[in-house]
Design a protein that fits this description.
Chain lengths: ~100, ~625
Amino acid sequence: MARSERELLLVKRTIARLRVAIVAVVTGMVVGFGLFAATAWLVIKGGPTVGPTLGLLRAYYPGYSVTWTGSFVGFAYGTLTGAALGWCVAALYNFLARRRSKRR
Amino acid sequence: MVRLRSGDERTVVVGAGPAGLTAALELGKLGRPGVVFEADDVVGGISRSVVFQGCRLDIGGHRFFTKVPEVEALWHEILGDDLLVRDRMSRIYYRDTFFDYPLKPLNALRGLGLFEAARVMASYLHSQLFPIADETAFDAWVSNRFGRRLFEIFFETYTEKVWGMPCSEISAAWAAQRIKNLDLKTALKNAFLGNGAGNGEVVTSLIDRFLYPRLGPGMMWERCRDLAASNGIETHLRSRVVRVHHAGARVEAVEVEGPDGETRREEAGALISSMPIGALVRAMQPAAPAEVLAAADSLRYRDFLIVGLIVDRAELFPDNWIYVHAPEVRVGRVQSFKNWSPEMVSDPELSFIGLEYFANRGDDLWNMTDDDLVELGAAEAGVIGLFEPGEVRAGTVVRMPRAYPVYDAGYETRLQTLRDWLERFDNLYTVGRNGQHRYNNQDHSMLAGLFAARGVAGEKLDLWSINEDQSFHEELSGEEAERHGMRDRLTPSRAETDVESMLQDAFALYDEVAMGGAVGITASLALAIATAALLLGSGQEFVPMLSLLGQYLFGYQVTWPGLLIGTIEAGLVGFGLGWFTARMINLMVAAFERSLERRLATMTTLEAMTGGMRGQE
């Protein structure tokens, strides 16, 4: 088999692995910034009652509120939560993919 | 003069072509004793120069180019200033029109005309929409990539002339073997960055210029023979090796039939053979097992003859060579040797051209008399419009049997049978195009000769890896490889790793089930934790919010039973989302990969065409 054919075969058989740390950092940043932006947007909009629904997140994030301070607290919590979720998905994916490739 | 080491047994080299003489030269440099036996009365094999009335004929036209620095250095070492740098020009003749070769789109379009170009496009679209499912044959393989019409114009006739069989009977693997110099890494670079990416100088040099000995390729091998002789390795012409005696795992001696017809025994410390591998196996005594002999007898070759014509005109055409795709003539290619080197003709007012015919020994072409062949050549040159037959001053014919190993169905299995049997001999090395039944170019054969000589001297080198892959698989360390000046080719693992890592990054597919599982489990856990946190602690005001998930997760509530139901459903939904995401990514990657493969196939087919034609050079 020619080298190029082997390489094409290799491409077809190659299964992607996720880099756990990178996925965790990226999802952490996305969720963290997302919560920060969502909170800050409501604070900027203002009004008689600011963010009553989003504020319920304090049930999970002690110290969080829909304020400027809360947006930074939310950023920290969001980052941690997102990182944990991302890490979990990537690590589980790699674990399952590895087991499945061994079976194949 | 290199002093021979006493006590060394003499190495017998069979064949004085590029592989054999390079081996002889290297043996001499290494101080190993040796001798070369050549059945013919000239050196050079298919790379010889034939002199006719003071003009020189190159059998096939040998463009000297290589990607192996050591081989190129050897050329310069052997010939010095006699190695010229020549500009290349070649065209394809088809339907009274000359097309630039390598093909240029605008030139091809102009040559074909609008109607034919439209047919080509329609045919191409048809091939893309309804590709031939079975791609094992060459015609289907090319048609699927270029369209049937383009295949008929630029591939079919010439390929069938060269190989003497219908393209439907030629294995598509033939093209694959000829694309050895183009790996996916290069293709990717070319696809993304253009043809000259990364090694533009090399690409340009292969297309536009080449090296060529002042008096033709035979000059190289005559000089090489003399250099080997100065180191004590003599070449005996008209000396055919008819038997090879072996015992245990070693070759012990050969029987040589000399010019006088007498057969004599020559002891052999080692044997480097460039004789056809089938003939070598047939010559072995004691004889090989029956199945090995059967395999030896079944390898096929394509023969070749060239009609040399001295024409009474100073300038005929500017090309080094012209591929003749026109089905109305039998000639496959026309050379103008004067355009290879001005010194290939005795008188600058004359031209010396070679009309190349591909034949099988015993067929009508092969059996024609020389006079008839000269007449045929002159007439066909007239049909093409190169010159009038009446302008021919004199003509000659050179027949070259077994010029090309044929890759017919099953040849790989038969060749492997021969290899398996021959590899039991510790001191036997097979080199050269016919020695390995491989479509080697001159540089590959030379490299095989070098490796064989070094193998005799104790190095461990895999001759069969030459021309099999871009990289070689020797048991050499990187330092040793560096010493040979061929690090890139001698360190395949690094090249493979580069390609692999690049491919993994670029095209790896996601495991859809694994991705579904990962997202599903994570979603499940997240919902379980979120629900449990509310059930176990404070934050009751968030309960109505989380309960809204019940709109999507049937039966979910912020209760312990709801947690169980929600966890299961979140797992299923998460699995679906993860699987779907991975699936979509994979489909997109696959579509991109197919597009890339088509581009790769286009390039490799063109390379195959170049290689196929280059094989005759």
